[in-house]
Amino acid sequence: xxxxxxxxxxxxxxxxxxxxxxxxxxxxxxxxxxxxxxxxxxxxxxxxxxxxxxxxxxxxxxxxxxxxxxxxxxxxxxxxxxxxxxxxxxxxxxxxxxxxxxxxxx
Length: 106
Fold this sequence. Notes:
Layout: H1 2-27, H2 31-46, E1 50-56, E2 62-70, E3 81-83, H3 87-95
Antiparallel strand pairs: 1-2, 2-3
Helix pairs in contact: 1-2
């Protein structure tokens, strides 16, 4: 029974986040403002101490670091850009699914 309650609670948190994100998307006029407001909510849902957002550069297969938030004093990766399929970031982009790396930064 506790497992079901835990799953239900997790689903509720996810739905609450989706609602918050939908509200932010509908009211944001600038991408930077949207990312700034959304990343902390996503980090909280996943219990992440830090988070990064990479955006694809228009017309290329390169992804550049657009935002770094949290307790990490520096980016997780030595590079601030990746190509599709290159490294963790490029692999996540190639797989077209969000990625979560639980390795501590250090």
